Amino acid sequence: MAERKTRRTGTIRALGRRLEVAGGEVMKAWRTQAKRPDRVGDLSYHGLELAHAGAKLAARSLSRLEEATQPPRRTARHDPHEPAHPARHAPPAPPPARHRPAPRPQEPEARAS
Questions:
Q1: Higher pLDDT, 107 or 4
Q2: Is the pLDDT of residue 96 over 90?
Q3: What is the DSSP string of 53-108?
């Protein structure tokens, strides 16, 4: 299915912002609930600890992945149009052109006697 440009790009950006704000509000409510001195607060506190540990592990793994996928440094080339690895041998010669065989000379017709 081919992608089409639509006029909804502003809507998609707005949706992203709304999700970000809603996520911030959820986290704020969760942290407020974790301050409660009862079992709900304890449960919320331990849930936040688990979420924090998971986010920390993910961030560490992603930073390692970022370092591992860093492309190596290259030296600058003098001519950007020059190929990186020049050919070591001359390119092969093109195959010889095919010709049709020369037509056979026709024999003179036998005369009827």
A1: 107
A2: no
A3: HHHHHHHHHHHHHHHHTPPPP-PPPS-TTS-SS--SSPPPPPPPPP-PPPPPPPPP
- pTM of the full predicted structure? 0.45
C-alpha 30/C-alpha 48 separation (Å) is 8
Q: List Cα–Cα distances, 42 to 4, 25, 27, 33, 34, in angstroms.
A: 49, 20, 16, 9, 6
Q: Are 47 and 30 in contact (CB under 8 A)?
A: yes
48, two tokens: 């936040």
Provide the CB-side half-sphere exposure for 65 (13 A, CA). Answer: 6
CA angle 13, 58, 28 (to 5 degrees): 60
